[in-house]
């Protein structure tokens, strides 16, 4: 589980997300490990986004988080800790529910 922030936005259900991730891991019989990336998220996503807004531009924090944190420093952390070889797969937590009505989804 990648914990990105100390709830500095005021409203973020990360604790609920963590409980859901733990329940999923329990059901699958796999260990859940938490990687604290608050500092990295702030430096690589929030500060950049604030700077872009001040320049009159509209950043996309989700894209920044994916490229810089989720698929950046998160994997760097695994490599540095020596845990990278232990994990065959990493679940990103980005999923969608598809609703179908006839031939339309």
Task: Explain this structure.
By secondary structure, the chain is mostly helical. It has one domain (2-86): HUPs (Rossmann fold). It has helices at residues 14-28, 38-54, 61-81; strands at 2-3, 35-36. A two-stranded parallel ribbon has the order 1-2. Helix 2 packs antiparallel against helix 3. It is globular. The relative contact order is 0.13. This is tRNA-5-taurinomethyluridine 2-sulfurtransferase. InterPro entries: Rossmann-like_a/b/a_fold, tRNA_2-thiouridylase_MnmA. It comes from Prasinoderma singulare. Keywords: ATP-binding, Disulfide bond, Nucleotide-binding, RNA-binding, Transferase, tRNA processing, tRNA-binding. GO terms for molecular function: ATP binding; transferase activity; tRNA binding.
Quickly describe the structure.
With 105 residues, this protein is mainly alpha-helical. The protein has helices at residues 14-28, 38-54, 61-81; strands spanning 2-3, 35-36.
| Low-pLDDT stretches | none
Quantity of strands, as a count: 2
Counting helices, strands and paired strands, the structural category is mainly alpha
The total number of structural domains is 1
Rg, Å, rounded: 16 Å
CATH architecture heading: 3-Layer(aba) Sandwich
Tell me the strand percentage band: under 5%
Within CATH, the superfamily carries the name HUPs
Helix content: 40-55%
N-C termini distance: 30 Å
CATH class: Alpha Beta
- Topology order in helix (H) and strand (E) letters: EHEHH
Any idea what the shape is?
globular
CATH topology: Rossmann fold
Number of helices: 3
The biggest beta sheet is recorded as: 2 strands, parallel
Strand order of the largest sheet: 1-2
Mean pLDDT: 81
GO molecular function: ATP binding; transferase activity; tRNA binding
Protein name: tRNA-5-taurinomethyluridine 2-sulfurtransferase
Keywords: ATP-binding, Disulfide bond, Nucleotide-binding, RNA-binding, Transferase, tRNA processing, tRNA-binding
């Amino acid at each position: 589980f990648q914990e990105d922030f100390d709830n500095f936005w005021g409203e973020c259900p990360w604790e609920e997300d963590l409980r859901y991730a733990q329940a999923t891991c329990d059901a699958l019989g796999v260990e859940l490990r938490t990687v604290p990336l608050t500092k990295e998220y702030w430096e690589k996503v929030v500060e950049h986004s604030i700077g872009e807004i001040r320049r009159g531009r509209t950043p996309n924090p989700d894209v920044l988080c994916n490229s810089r944190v989720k698929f950046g420093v998160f994997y760097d952390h695994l490599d540095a800790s020596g845990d990278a070889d232990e994990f065959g797969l990493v679940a990103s937590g980005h999923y969608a529910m598809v609703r179908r009505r006839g031939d339309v989804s």
